[in-house]
UniProtKB/TrEMBL annotation:
Record domain Helicase C-terminal: where: 303-477
Residues of the full protein shown: 217 to 995 of 1161
Reactions catalysed according to its record: ATP + H2O = ADP + phosphate + H(+)
Protein family per UniProt: Belongs to the DExH box helicase family.
Helicase ATP-binding domain span: 48-215
Alphabetical UniProt keywords: ATP-binding, Helicase, Hydrolase, Nucleotide-binding, RNA-binding
Protein name: RNA helicase
Enzyme nomenclature, EC number: 3.6.4.13
GO terms assigned for molecular function: ATP binding; hydrolase activity; RNA binding; RNA helicase activity
CC annotations in GO: nucleus
Length: 779
């Protein structure tokens, strides 16, 4: 130990020398000066002394004031300067992988180092850190995983949890776990960073921890609401039908469920009324209902285009940041703008996009200055709201909505709907326009709608199914799930917790007494939804690992089958070429992936993707997931080292189908044949619809009585995304837990299905099978 101490001491001295020589070099001095102009610098000393004196410190400050890039760096620098550099170990969490990566890169640059030296990052599937890394930026998920194997965070000296105001599930969860850890690690320092001023709530949660506010410098931003915009741009919102309504096109038209015309007119009238008389009180009763369904999406692309035109023609220079709800909409609008005489002119306008899964080269463009006399327009998701700062933005266009998942505990269904943002978000979006000079923000909704926004967004913990979270609570040995979650800042509904616990019991991850089973322990090691983890393990056990691995990796990534708005039919045909009449989106995915691998070997991967409407980026992600998952399984001893052994049954399609069924159960719907059409029913919800891009959506008959699906999502109706046809015997044999006790329970459940759906003649066959099964189980 003394020897170790000596080594670290020596390394600390070296770190100090390196740091000093950089800080005294001409570039270092330049960098230091620009860092000193950030508002965070003013609070450097008070921050360092607060951290020295308190176990928990809370810091708030406007986005861009230097929290993420500066504060962890101050701690690092001061430790190095005091000769303790090699003894400190700072972790800073980010809600999104892209911010962890860009920030780590930025901080390395500021220190005149390469990424992976003193400063590194780690996100799922990727990382850049070395043995001399003492400041690590990682996603909150990564820190949670680390806590699984290292409950006390041994060796870590400081933890920064960033963007806590977003109230993401991982951050909220981390805060409960860390709060629990603090008494055991008296020397650990916890620093919470938040963009908006709800610091008090966090301070109370941590027993009155001190808060420091970094006063920002932002220029004033003028807020224009819809009524002002219409006046300023001369755009006319005369009739709802004239307006192209992208939200409507996406959510309703494609599903052939057009909003009734009458309702449209009502909404149009209402919007006009509201615009004429923006006294919200008068309208509150009627408006609250109808406005909930009047989305800015309904006003749509044309209004955004008009606003952009107005800015480019009439306003001074400066970049424009447009907040939209999702990647689909962003790419749609980008394509529409391409055809525009002014906005599509690359000599005058540079249109860029900013979303969670963009490539690194694309990210860099966003920060760069455009060529002279070219205006930069960035179409972004609400990612640009807080975690990424584009400095030269002078104009913000805010659609007022963000796509967020909510969770309907009663129906146990996640819903994905663009919904109104909060006042805090709107303010945050507006603030993005005042970084370099006074700016303007175009809110595409009336002022009275803004007045009706909630103050803050609901925490994610209250908006999502809790399956993975509950499993993690158990594997972190945090005691009773209910008790643990009741210690969170805003505890979730008991019903949501109960649903999750019951689900985990059903897949045998927990036993009757809510204790973690062996299966549960393995599932908690896999960074996927527990049911997909189970599918993987089943694939390994039943020796059809490879295709199952692709299915699970595919379901963990986004859909690789692209669906460009203007080429939907072609894309659909391309996808169905992969389906070869096997009535399975999952099998189509396996074929597409394998084809891509073959093409890659021949050097024609790019062309292959282009021809088949596949996203090569997503296929690449699936490829990495496959590697990671099989590594974990092999490491856990669940996978034979010999690839051919674990794939000896991979060619057996029925088996693969059955394993898919075992993983996705109880996501199951019956196929009801009607004259010339099909309908689908789940046990609880009744009717569900298939996504238009599903291979199964094209058939008039399906020779399987059931479809299993990974996900049902409530949009306006309930939709199922990817599905696979399965037979009765697959469902009976694989559709539940394989353990004795649960099998009986599962069969009881199936009795319900039988009465509910099945053809009476099949019932007999079922009973016979069940008897056989029972004898097998008894043995
Ligand atoms: P906060 O976390 O408070 O929002 P940051 O620490 O992320 O602020 O950013 C501080 C400043 O550093 C911002 O003004 C931002 O423009 C600048 N900055 C951050 N990342 C980069 C980057 N990759 N390249 C250039 N400047 C950056
Ligand atoms: Mg930040």
């Amino acid at each position: 130990d003394i020897l170790m101490e000596k080594i670290l001491q020596r390394r600390s001295w070296r770190m100090r020398n390196l740091q000093r020589s950089w800080q005294e070099s001409p570039e270092g001095i330049k960098m230091l000066n620009s860092r000193r102009s950030l508002p965070a610098y003013m609070e450097k000393e008070s921050l360092l002394s607060a951290i020295a004196r308190n176990q928990v410190t809370i810091i708030s400050g406007e986005t861009g004031c230097g929290k993420t890039t500066q504060l962890p760096q101050y701690v690092l620098e001061s430790e190095i300067e005091s000769g303790r550099g090699a003894f400190c170990n700072i972790i800073c969490t980010q809600p999104r992988r892209i911010s962890a990566m860009t920030v780590a890169e930025r901080v390395s640059t500021e220190r005149g180092e390469n990424l992976g030296e003193t400063v590194g990052y780690k996100v799922r599937l990727e990382g850049m850190k070395g043995k001399n890394t003492h400041l690590l930026f990682c996603t909150s998920g990564i820190l949670l995983r680390r806590l699984l194997v290292d409950r006390n965070l041994n060796g870590v000296t400081h933890v920064f949890v960033d963007e806590i105001h977003e109230r993401g599930m991982n951050e909220d969860f981390l805060l409960i776990v860390l709060k629990d850890l603090l008494p055991r690690r008296r020397d650990l320092r916890l620093i919470l960073m938040s963009a908006t001023l709800n610091a008090e709530m966090f301070s109370n949660y941590f027993g009155g921890a001190p808060t420091i506010h970094i006063p920002g410098f932002t220029y004033p931003v003028r807020a224009l609401f819809l009524e002002d915009i219409l006046e300023k741009t001369g755009y006319k919102l005369t009739s709802f039908n004239q307006v192209d309504d992208y939200g409507q096109d996406k959510l309703w038209k494609t599903q052939r469920q057009l909003l009734p015309r009458k309702r449209k007119n009502q909404i149009t009238t209402l919007v006009e009324d509201v615009l004429k008389n923006s006294n919200y009180e008068t309208y509150s009763a009627r408006a609250r209902d109808s406005l909930a369904s009047w989305t800015p999406d309904c006003i749509g692309f044309n209004l955004i285009e008009a606003v952009l035109c107005h800015i480019c023609r009439k306003e001074g220079p400066g970049a424009v940041l447009v907040f939209m709800t999702g990647w689909d909409d962003i790419s749609c609008l980008r394509d529409q703008l391409k055809a525009h005489p002014l906005l599509g002119d690359p000599n005058r306008i540079l249109v860029l996009t900013c979303h969670g899964s963009m490539a690194t080269s694309e990210q860099k463009l966003i920060f760069q200055k455009p060529p002279p006399n070219v205006r930069k327009i960035v179409l972004a998701t609400n990612m640009a709201e807080a975690s990424i700062t584009i400095n030269d933005v002078v104009f913000v266009v805010d659609c007022g909505k963000a796509k967020e998942t909510t969770y309907d505990a009663l129906n146990n269904t996640p819903c994905l709907l663009p919904s109104w943002i909060s006042k805090a978000s709107a303010r945050q979006r507006r603030g993005r326009a005042g970084r370099v000079q006074p700016g303007e923000c175009y809110h595409l909704y009336p002022k009275c709608v803004y007045d009706a926004f909630a103050d803050y967004q609901l925490p994610e913990l209250l908006r999502t199914p809790l399956n993975s979270l509950c499993l993690q609570i158990k594997s972190l040995q945090l005691g009773s799930i209910t008790q643990f979650l009741s210690a969170s800042m805003q505890p979730p509904e008991p019903l949501a917790v109960q649903n999750a616990v019951e689900f985990l019991k059903m897949i045998s991850a927990l036993d009757e007494n809510e204790n973690l089973t062996n299966l549960g322990r393995y599932l908690s090691m896999l960074p996927v939804d527990p049911k997909l983890g189970k599918m993987l393990i089943m694939g390994a056990v039943f020796r059809c690992f490879d295709p199952v691995l692709t299915v699970v990796s595919g379901l963990s990534a986004r859909d690789p089958f692209l669906l460009p708005q203007d080429k939907k039919d072609l894309a659909g045909t391309a996808k169905s070429r992969f389906s070869a009449k096997d009535y399975s989106d999952h099998m189509a995915l396996v074929r597409a992936y394998e084809g891509w691998k073959d093409a890659d070997r021949e050097g024609s991967a790019y062309e292959y993707c282009w021809r088949n409407f596949l996203s090569s980026q997503t296929l690449q992600a699936i490829h990495s997931f496959r590697k990671q998952f099989s590594f974990i399984l092999r490491d856990a001893g669940l996978l034979e080292t010999d690839a051919s052994t674990c794939n000896s049954l991979s060619h057996n399609q029925s088996l693969v189908r059955a394993i898919i069924c075992s993983g996705l159960f109880p996501g199951i719907s019956s196929v009801v044949h009607r004259e010339k059409s099909l309908s689908f029913k789940t046990m609880d919800d009744g009717q569900v619809l298939l996504y238009a891009n599903s291979v199964n959506a094209k058939y008039q008959t399906i020779p399987y009585p059931w479809l299993v699906f990974g996900e049902k999502v409530k949009v306006n109706a309930v939709f199922i995304r990817d599905s696979t046809g399965v037979s009765d015997s697959m469902l009976i044999l694989f559709g539940g837990a394989l353990k004795k006790g649960e099998m009986a329970g599962h069969l009881k459940m199936l009795d319900g299905y039988i009465d509910f759906f099945m053809d009476p003649s099949l019932a007999e066959c079922y009973w016979k099978l069940k008897e056989e099964l029972n004898t097998i189980i008894q043995k």
